[in-house]
Design a protein that fits this description.
CATH class of the largest domain: Alpha Beta
Strand order of the largest sheet: 3-4-5-6-2-1-7
CATH architecture of the largest domain: 3-Layer(aba) Sandwich
Bound molecules: guanosine-5'-diphosphate, magnesium ion
Order of helices and strands: EEHEEEEHEHHHHHHEHEEHEEEHHHH
Helix content: 40-55%
Structural class: alpha/beta
Radius of gyration: 29 Å
Distance between the termini: 19 Å
CATH superfamily of the largest domain: P-loop containing nucleotide triphosphate hydrolases
């Protein structure tokens, strides 16, 4: 589709559809303040300093009709989101007002902004790199505190800085190798190639290792509750949720299908899946429920295997044990057995629930250090994987050929920051944005 013109005046409603106390219309591009002046009854926007707001009225200059009373915020380059002259009109948050104001701006010369076009301009004007632009999107889409924290780190260039630092080292090394190829008599120390590449490779791998946690922080995790009928699965789901979602009965086999409930555990978005009890059964409905439970367990990011510790221990079902937490339920009742591999909880008294939440959090995000950048974006993960492969190539290649692989690794890292990327890549990134951002 090609990149849109940077010099058009673009306008869009920046607040979500529907009614609210306040609604915002954004406008950006050279001449946008002159355009706002035409519809503004109040202080002349073209003479207002940037970063200031003023109160006035929005008025159709042709009919003289007033559309609303509003606040006007003025931004001047380069101190604006897009880096361009721009303004925000804060009106009453009625769809009728907002659409009316937008229509008026269109009729007087603005054009509708494409999804993410304000952020696209920020990127093209060098206000932020592509990874930061993607962090804006992640922040808007963040559904949990963990996702919000990660997106904010990306926005403040946490990832970008680390990628830039790695690129710098590779550039310096490349220059060194180039000098050696031009003046072989100067001599290159092969050891220097290794000494630079190995730590860079390690750092790339460290970043890649955070990807599972990053993905979970952004997209959430699936947590399967599995165990024999009456093990207390539905009760535990309710206890984790804090309200009665699943039916709890003393009759084994009540949950014959499965049910999902979204919850947040220690800042992580989790969809908990309560499954049918797993036991040997001839009942065809229950049997298919059991099979489905085991399949859900296979597909889950984490499995809770629940066993009632007041009863004799049953034979464990086939579960992905490396992703399974063992939980002994009904810890308020006398114990029929004890096993340190099991975390003891009682849904009735709340005993052990906080420890269980901590464990779930640890098992889901344990791979990534707290307080650091996690790579959550698929595009970044893919580019890092390519960089990793080229760095390995470079380490294995003879010194005089290492440069080609280093260049390829550099290319992959630069893509993360959006340097020398194709329009198609840019288009794909911004397609997912909402209009007005
Ligand atoms: N004392 C005690 N009873 C529990 C606890 N959790 C569940 N139960 C009881 O165990 C029975 C089965 O619970 P339920 O959650 O339906 O088990 P599910 O079949 O695994 O979903 C019900 O009678 C619950 O009241 C607990 O922590 N303490
Ligand atoms: Mg149940």
């Amino acid at each position: 589709m090609g990149l849109p013109s940077l010099t058009d005046i673009i306008a869009a409603i920046a607040t979500p559809p529907g009614r609210g106390a306040v609604g915002i219309v954004r406008i950006a591009g050279p001449g946008s303040l002159e355009l706002v002046r035409k519809v503004w009854q109040g202080k002349d926007p073209t003479r207002l300093p940037g970063g200031r707001f003023t109160f006035g009225r929005i008025r159709d200059p042709r009919s003289g009709e007033v559309l609303d009373e509003a606040l006007l915020l003025v931004f001047r380059p380069p101190h604006s989101y897009t880096g361009q002259e721009s303004a925000e009109l804060q009106t009453h948050g009625s769809p009728a007002v907002l659409r009316g104001v937008l229509q008026l701006l269109f009729e007087l010369g603005a054009r509708p902004a494409r999804p993410g076009e304000f952020t696209l301009r920020a990127y093209l004007n060098g206000r932020m790199d592509l990874a930061q632009a993607e962090a804006v999107l992640s922040l808007i889409e963040a559904e949990s505190q963990a996702a919000r924290r990660q997106a904010l780190r990306g926005l403040s260039a946490g990832l970008s800085q680390r990628i830039a630092a790695l690129s710098e080292q590779l550039f310096a090394l490349l220059a060194h190798i180039q000098a050696w190829l031009d003046y072989p008599e100067e001599g290159v120390e092969p050891a220097r190639i290794r000494a630079t590449l190995e730590p860079v490779l390690q750092e790339v791998r460290r970043l890649l290792a955070t990807a599972p946690a990053g993905r979970i922080a952004q997209k959430g995790a699936r947590l399967a509750l599995v165990g024999a009928p009456n093990a207390g699965k539905s009760s535990l789901l309710n206890a984790l949720l804090g309200y009665e979602r699943a039916i709890v009965t003393p009759i084994p086999g009540t949950t014959r299908d499965y049910l999902e409930a979204p919850l947040e555990i220690a800042g992580v978005p989790v969809v908990a899946v309560d499954t049918a009890g797993v036991r040997e059964t001839e009942d065809p409905v229950e049997k298919s429920g059991v099979e489905r439970a085991l399949r859900i367990a296979q597909e889950a990011d984490l499995v809770l295997y629940l066993v009632d510790q007041s009863q004799p221990q049953p034979t464990p079902p086939p579960l992905p044990w490396e992703r399974t937490l063992r939980v002994a339920t009904k810890a308020d009742l006398p114990a029929a057995w004890e096993d340190d591999a099991y975390l003891r909880v009682s849904s009735q008294t709340g005993l052990g629930l906080e420890a269980l939440r901590q464990q779930i959090h640890h098992r889901l995000l344990g791979t990534a250090p707290e307080g650091e950048v996690w790579v959550s974006n698929e595009r970044h993960v893919e580019a890092l994987r390519r960089a990793e492969a080229h760095l390995v190539e470079a380490l294995e290649a003879p010194e005089d050929l290492a440069g080609v692989s280093i260049e390829m690794a550099l290319g992959a890292l630069s893509e993360i920051l959006g340097k020398d990327v194709s329009e198609e890549v840019i288009d794909r990134v911004f397609r997912n944005f909402c209009v007005g951002k």
